[in-house]
Here is the input.
Amino acid sequence: MSAQVVTCACGKVKIECPATPVFSAFCHCNECRVTTGAPFLWGAGYPFDSIKGFNESELISYQTVPGKATTRHSCK
Here is the structure.
């Protein structure tokens, strides 16, 4: 399988991920519902150091729920 290429909705940030995610899951916790505005979120996780092809200065990092371990990223 080839690498996965994903983009943000506006196309400003393009990220290349390795072929196999560490995990993939559907989540319906309150944090994921608030982030997406949907009843659930599907996501895949990759080791951060294996992701390539993006400029970190183009990303905003934030926590949707202060004190939680999850950090979200979005384009500027």
